[in-house]
Amino acid sequence: VGGNATPDETLQDITAVRVFSEGIPASSSPEQIKRILNLGEESDSPARELARAVSDIARTYTADPERGTSGLNAVLEFRHDRYLRGGDHTSFSAQGFPAVRFTEWREDFRHQHQNLRTENGAEYGDLLKFVDFSYVAQVARLNAAVLAVTASAPAIPRNVHIVTKELVNDSTLQWDNPEGAPAGTRYEVVWRETASGGWQFAADAGTANTLTLPVSKDNVIFGVRSVDSAGHRSPTAAPE
Fold it and tell me: How many Å apart are CA 202 and CA 188, to the nearest integer?
């Protein structure tokens, strides 16, 4: 997340940070994978829902009017990690924890895992002069905001289900309150077209534990998230 301040770098984008997340969890059993595929939820792992929450939080909290910046764009990358690279999130994913990776938009591999040297006029090595500290600060702001929002929000709703008892075009979702949910916790049902990467629509269910919408479950992916009185939202839970 150093931003890469190499003088000859012209393709870096200091307004963007990539957020990598796995689809089907690495810890899934064969039965769990079968269920995920049957529901069409290959892109709705806990890690991917966390990544969507990061994107949401970035739009809300990273703008800095004093610096004249409109915020950091958290670009969702729907793969576990980069080619030929690894990240600290991998060991957490392997143990079943939702984990994502933040990485600058364009890495300069001359300044990563290199011995200090100069070759053909190019300087190699992870040196301070190649770090964009303003960019590092923006990524740190985003990390802090994600930690604060997810810590402040109620927990994720439990036992989220779509009712599939009969053939109807409406969709009914049901869920249980998360453990320790404060009084007044509200719930939002969100959905997106199956080919869309991020949530497109939301409906407020109030404090109820069910909501029926005139939207066909065949055409969209649904989710449910908790919201506290200050508007802090939990990551979304995908339905069974």
Answer: 6
